[in-house]
Amino acid sequence: MFDPKLPPMLSEIQLACLQAQTRRHFLRSLGGGLGTLFVGTMAASFAPSAKAAGSETAALDFSRDPSTPLSPLPPQFPAKVRRVIYLHMAGAPSQLELFEHKPELKRFDGQDCPASFLAGKRFAFISGVPKLLGSQYPFHQAGQSGQWISDRLPHLERRVDDICFIKSMRTDQFNHAPAQLLVQTGNPRLGYPSFGSWVVYGLGTENQNLPGFIVLLSGGKNPDGGKQLWSSGFLPSVYQGVQCRSHGEPVLYLDNPQGVSRSLRRSMLDTIDDINQQTYATFGNPETVTRIAQYEMAFRMQMDATDAMDIRKEPDSVHAQYGSKPGEASFANNCLVARRLAERGVRFIQLYHWGWDSHGADAKEALNLGFNDRCREVDQPTAALLSDLKSRGLLEDTLLVWGGEFGRTPMRENRGGQEMKYVGRDHNPGAFTIWLAGGGVKSGISYGETDEMGYEIVKNPVEIRDLHATTLYLLGFDHHKLNFRFQGLEQKLTSVKPARVVAEILT
Amino acid sequence: MTAPNRKGMLSQFRLGFVMLASMLVVTLLVVFLPPDGNERADWVQFIGRFHPLVVHFPIALFLLVPILEIVGRSARFTYLRLSVKFVLALATVGATTAAILGWCLARSGGYSGRLITQHMWGGVVLSIICWVCCLLRMRLRELGVTYTIALALGVGLVAWTGYRGGQLSLGPNHLTEQMPDGLRNLLRLEPSRATSASADPSTFYGARIQPIFTARCITCHGEDKHKGNLRLDSYRALMRGGKDGPVIQTGNTQASNLFRRITLPASDDDFMPRGKQPLSADQVKMIELWIGAGASDTLAVNAIKNALSGSAVPADVKFEEIDRAAVAKLRSAIAPLVSQLQKQFPNILDYDSRSSADLRLNASTFGSKFGDRDLEAFAPIAEHIVVADLSRTTISDHSAAVIATMKRLRVLRLMDTRLTNATLLRLESLNQLESLDVYATPITPRVLPTIAKLPKLSHFYVGRTGIQPGKSVPEDLVGKLVF
Question: Where are the alpha helices (DSSP H) in B140-176?
Fold first, then answer.
């Protein structure tokens, strides 16, 4: 401000200061300023990553209201299947006794294994020079499609025209726990979300009174991979698999304790919810809201889950079809429950059977003894589940997956270099069979081939991540896009190696 | 002038004369023995390979001259101008040497085409300009107009010839190829990758083969540089072949020179692309299949894939990007209604996918809590529903009218409901229906003639109904009934 009262000298200085912003100063800062503006506006197009982030199509939005974390979301593009039933045969069933017809191997039965089979290979138990072992059971062609199958699966054989065999599955893990983790989480190490968790994260679930991802065990031995196989890893914990039992309370501690009525339970839950809400208001951790939602779901499940799991409500004819007996823990019961859950809109249903680890170290796991029991336990229920889903029209938008975590060797296991009392095979990560049935998958075909000994893949190998990518594709996702940002990486089920959708098996 | 000076002048003129002679030689070579695309003696090529190495010296030296001249005008740096003559003479020698080496490379390395001619003449003229500048500068103390013009011309020519040389070795648009799109827009250039030869993408050649050539071969066998007189930038040029005749024998992979040379070991003299990464196994396979199938440019893109049913060429799945604006536009008419219904009936109505405005209704999870009145609420959006699952609900034949308006239904599930023949007889209008499920309903064979008229139906699930296997079934339904 120019103050007339100030001495003239000072006002002159002030004026000089004002004039110090000369034309040159103006132009100089103009140049820089305009340049900065230009760089600012162009930055988005200069940096490809910035462009990708700004682009609308780059990422899919999976965010939901934290109070309804399981609400359904549409798939990325029109889906062929709406739900998955995964029948995991823990222990790795021998493909050479079930689906892989290898007459040449039979011809060399009992002869020393060629050195080329052993060079550079690691085995769990085989040592020295093992003998080749032909299939223990006769094979024949079945169905209109004329696919080869052994005589161990007489019920399933009648559904062979609904099945797509992938005979060229491959894994890089030769021990059960990491191999199971690889199949179920896309990664052989702990801490990654399971297949089912990813699917429920991506699609939610239609029936809010049941979990979206249910796991059923056949009794017997639990899978080596443990509960990690259905964990949600770094995904919000609400997406983890819920292990249900096929007898008694479907979920442990779901029923009200004696002397506690449903209304008392309700008021108790309301109080807990209040406390949790306060915690959420203080700390803002979304896991708190998830916890509230879980309590609420458990309350709703008291009715619906009990009903869904109660196979006593099924007529005798259905029990005869599945071979199920209410009240026991069995694969047959679980198959029937799986169908009931599929009808009720459960997104991902996972069954684990056990005892397929046919090393031949004892009678229970011998190819000539225990293996037969396993076949009997799964054959009829699996076939019944397939045909039941089909007649109810559910198979056209359900994907059924059947398989283990790796294959078995064409060599007879010789633990410690000795011939063993029972017949068995060692682990073979190099080739195994998994079959698919259901919507969007060609039926009555075999994809991929192994060599004449059934030892290594010679045509169309399919990695576990390819199977994952293919399944996600059927569910309506580009496997790159079903991702979750964690530790600075867009984490996905198929992990970081490139995965391929096996388009050849799609309809 | 003193004696030593005159002596100096003389030797300078002698040098100038030698340079003139060698320049004449280059010019004559270039005029009478131009590069013609044929490869020649190895040793000439060996010498020629030094061209890219040598050429940078005269460029740097010549560009130094104007700098010395300009900076030398300042009083503090006058001494710089003393070295101008020396630098110019050196540049002239260098430029002439580079031109001769360039000719060696072009003549023996199998180059020909517009680009090489331009680059070559640029080089020749540039060395002449160097020489002229040199002569002028020796006579001048101050900057003459002619000298200045010659110098400016030279600088321009260095830039132009150098750019042409870059195009020869790095591809015709090596400077703009990686330009960010922002700058590209600013300069109004074509978007990147629009340069590949436009072959019909619906043909196998256009979709699978030409892209391989464009990516891996046309730097040397393209519009601007046709080594071995071979061009691979169009189907016609490819089939015409090179200096040794055709490179493709239709239907005969082994007799096709092109295939033979891309499959040689990389150490072989004839291996292509020479000095670069071999083609990938997939690319080789693709070319093999295409030649084997007759090497036609009209063969459909999926013809080969189908013939081999995916055994050799992995089938690819296309992941479409979602255009959110387009989807929002599609949904705009029904969006408010849909979100209102989603609030009223949580979790049972949703879009078929993130990229579509089609709807899918699954009331089965509501079970007995969903009846005729509830279904009526969906009547306004009935035509957008493509999948409807009403299984286990309490709807009755009163809902037939609403269901009949769902004209775009592909899948209709009515399992475990009270619906009777009356409803099914009204479904004639559902001409998009592919799958109809009436499992465990009181339906009887009386509906079969009506259902048989549905043009797209492929599955009719009739388990636990009045329809039994083995009874007479209308011809149109044979193989579609599932019990």
Answer: 145-170
A165 lies in which domain range?
83-505
8 Å CB contact between A290 and A236: yes
Comparing CB atoms, the residue among A56, A344, A478 nearest residue B365 is A344
Q: Is the dihedral of CA A309, A313, A316, A318 positive or negative?
A: negative
- Shortest Cα distance from A81 to chain B (angstroms)? 12
Residue with tokens 């030892």: A455
Residue A290 lies in a domain: yes
Q: For residue A230, what are the contacts with CB-CB under 8 A and spacing of at least 6?
A: A184, A194, A196, A197, A213, A215, A240, A241, A243, A350
Minimum distance, in Å, between the CA of residue B75 and any CA atom of chain A:
27
Residue among A72, A391, A393 whose CB faces B347 most closely: A72
CA A127/CA B21 separation, integer angstroms: 82
Please check whether residues A42 and A123 belong to one and the same domain: no
pLDDT, tens digit, for every residue of A205-237?
999 899 999 999 998 888 999 999 999 999 988
Please tell me whether the interface predicted TM-score (ipTM) of this complex is above 0.90.
Answer: no
Same domain (yes/no): A102, A28: no
Confidence at residue B98, expressed as pLDDT on a 0 to 100 scale? 93
Q: State how far the alpha carbon of B151 is from the alpha carbons of B70, B127, B128, in Å.
A: 12, 12, 12
Q: What Å distances lie between residue A60 and A196, A468, B228, B331, B411, CA to CA?
A: 18, 19, 51, 18, 27
Q: How many CA atoms lie within 13 A of A177 on its CB side?
A: 8
Write out pLDDT tens, residues B303-336. Answer: 765 444 333 444 577 777 888 888 999 999 999 9
Using CB atoms, pick whichever of B347, B353, B461 lies closest to residue A476: B353
How far is Cα of residue A58 from the mean position of the Cα atoms in its chain? Answer: 24
Q: Are residues A21 and A120 in the same domain?
A: no
Q: Considering only A454-458, A493-497, B53-57, B283-287, which range has the smallest mean pLDDT?
A: B283-287
Q: Is A64 on the interface with B (CB under 8 A)?
A: no
Task: Annotate A273-299 with b (16+ C-beta within 10 A) or e (fewer).
Answer: eeebeeebeeeeeeebbbbbbbeebbb
Q: Using CA atoms, how far apart are residues B19 and B97, in angstroms rounded to an integer?
A: 10
CA distance A447 to A445: 7
CB contact set of A483 (below 8 Å; sequence gap of 6+): A59, A490, A491, A492
Which of B319, B330, B339, B368 to mutate to probe the A interface, most A CBs <10 Å? Answer: B319
Length of chain B: 483
In the CATH scheme, what is the code of domain B324-482? Answer: 3.80.10.10
Q: Structure pTM?
A: 0.68
A407-444 pLDDT, tens digit per residue, is: 999 999 998 888 899 999 999 999 999 999 999 999 99
